[in-house]
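anyone seen this seq b4? input:
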Amino acid sequence: MRAAWPDVAEIAIDNDAFSAMSLVMEVIRAVRALRQEQNIPLGKKAALILRPSASRQDVLQVAAPYIERLCNPSKLVIDANAAPPAERATSVLTDVEIWLSLEGLVDIEAERQRLDEELRHLDFEVERLVGRLANDAFVARAPEAVVDKEREKLRGYEARRAKVRNELKRVATVSSGQGAE
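predicted toks r here
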């Protein structure tokens, strides 16, 4: 009780582990959000396909037990070359495309409306960042790290927007009865 307070050495933060765990949490959050948007209870199983960038595939493979436990898929596929199911709900992250199979579970028109809403949000974010980065006063006064972070966000939003547009085209094809892929 009278001993000196212990000295704690500065703990080194493992940035790779932090980044990996952040990705896993983001994937789980996105899958749960897809289930909620589609009114698919966690108890109802649906196939889950993750198509990560090649650099992130190993991270998701290692985290597969966590994803299975917290997302409750009937089947989990983690593959950089995975083919998406014809009827699916989609979430697009910077490093991962997420597909939740909706075959026999969900209305395709509702998925189209959800993707339309996501596209409007991404269009808004891209326009906002383009305007901000076109503002010479902002670029001149803001620290370089802040400007670089905004440019990185813009690249991420533009990539996500392109993927969502592709999904909208696919959903339009499925809903018109022409098939997919």
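The chain has a mean pLDDT of 87. Residues 107-181 form a domain with the Helix Hairpins fold (CATH 1.10.287). kinda curious what u guys think
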